[in-house]
Design a protein that fits this description.
heterodimer, A: about 90 residues, alpha+beta, Arc Repressor Mutant, subunit A, three-stranded antiparallel β-sheet, 4 strands, B: about 200 residues, 3 domains, elongated
């Protein structure tokens, strides 16, 4: 289970446009792995703006994350998102 | 390649000399003209010249300072160690954020962005843009496959080496032409004047 696999599962369980979320516990159960490992991957995906962790602890894929998966590449990738538009 | 322990200038530098029996590369020349070629991974002459196979050079007397890979990348590709570190960082498990790369390598975030774009210019990374949730775009940098990276860097270096070889040949011809035209004079600044400043 790696960061990409975590994102792929998250994308199947949530929806960016409809802002459908899931809980970390549900995602951990789907991945059948350690909760701490999933949390680390989610934090990394959130930093890449590919996933979003809401204050209430629920998570979902972002529009960026869905487009990322559509790239259909297994190559490693660096995401350089820069500051959010509001900070520019 | 054989090694000498000390250079002629007295510096404590191991110099290397081309040894056809053990080198990982070969140098061939045409016996009828000035054509010289460098070949990697070939036992036989890679090409003919004047309808004859080129001959392996065996009588090289000059020793050279062995290249340092960091200097080669800097000179040939204008790619400092930071750029190579980033390039190697991409050969792993992603996706990772630019901030994570900066933290793990100990570089500023701006340095990461600068060299990511440099690596794209060199053809060692590919860049895509994704829509950012909330507006704007997010840049993503993909690694090219290792075989393509090998080809791009090797051919890129050959281009640089060809430019360098042309400069050396120009220098020799300039010197030769000047001496022919001015047999009674010292070789003056015209030699360096023939090479424009960078």
């Amino acid at each position: 289970m790696n960061r990409r696999t975590t994102l792929e599962h998250l994308a199947r369980m949530t929806d960016a446009e409809r802002e459908e979320t899931t809980t970390i516990e549900t995602l951990v159960a789907a991945l059948d792995t350690d909760k701490r490992a999933v949390e680390i991957h989610l934090t990394g995906l959130d930093a890449c703006e590919l996933a979003r962790i809401d204050p209430d602890g629920t998570v979902r894929v972002t529009i960026t994350g869905e487009e990322f998966l559509e790239l259909d590449t297994e190559e490693a990738i660096i995401v350089d998102s820069g500051p959010p538009c509001s900070e520019k | 390649m054989s090694k000498n322990e000390t250079s002629q200038s007295g510096e404590d530098v191991d110099e290397v000399q081309y040894d056809p029996a053990s080198s990982r590369y070969d140098i061939f020349e045409c016996p009828d003209c000035d054509n010289v070629v460098l070949a990697l991974g070939r036992d036989e002459p890679p090409m003919s010249c004047h309808d004859e196979p080129m001959e392996r050079v065996t009588d090289v007397e000059m020793s050279v300072k062995p290249p340092d890979v960091r200097q080669v990348l800097l000179e040939a590709f204008d790619l400092p160690k930071a750029g190579l570190d980033i390039c190697l960082c991409v050969i792993g498990e992603g996706p990772v954020s630019a901030n994570e790369v900066a933290d793990s390598l100990g570089y500023d975030r701006s340095t990461i962005t600068r060299y990511l774009n440099k690596l794209v210019d060199l053809g060692l990374l590919r860049q895509s843009e994704l829509n950012r949730e909330g507006g704007g775009v997010v840049n993503v940098y993909h690694s090219v496959d290792l075989e393509r990276m090998r080809r791009e860097t090797l051919i890129g270096f050959y281009v640089w080496a060809g430019e360098a070889a042309s400069l050396i040949e120009d220098a020799n011809l300039t010197k030769q032409n000047y001496l022919e035209e001015n047999p009674d004079q010292e070789l003056p600044d015209v030699f360096w004047d023939s090479f424009p400043d960078e």
